[in-house]
Amino acid sequence: MAPSDHPVPVTAQITIVRNSPADTQTRQIKIFLDGQSQGELMYGDSTTLDVSAGTHTIRVDNTWNGKEITIQIRAGEHLQFLTRSSAGKFAWFLLGFLGAGPMQVSIEPLPSRS
Question: Fewest CB atoms within 10 A around its CB: which of 12, 62, 83, 102?
Answer without folding.
Answer: 102
